[in-house]
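Morning. Coffee machine broken again, so started the prediction first thing and wrote up yesterday's gels while waiting. Chain of 75 residues, entered below exactly as on the submission form.
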Amino acid sequence: MMTDSDSASGSSAEGPRNDDAVFTGWQTMRSGEPVALYTITAADHPSRGSTVTHKSLLDLNLKIPQTPGPPGKRP
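Came back before lunch.
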């Protein structure tokens, strides 16, 4: 099981993670809609270190990491 501290450090008890990206946080757009942001961590990827959206990860054929719900959004 992975905890928030594991995702922040980029490693877990099982060893180094090889995720394509890590969840960075939420950004509120001018429309008021929250957008999830991710930092690309895929080894040898030309965009490694870039912060992108969910759509960009899909466009780059990268795996989308587990993402917490946006703050303030409750059913």
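Residues 1-16 have pLDDT under 50 and may be disordered. Going to sketch it on the whiteboard this afternoon.
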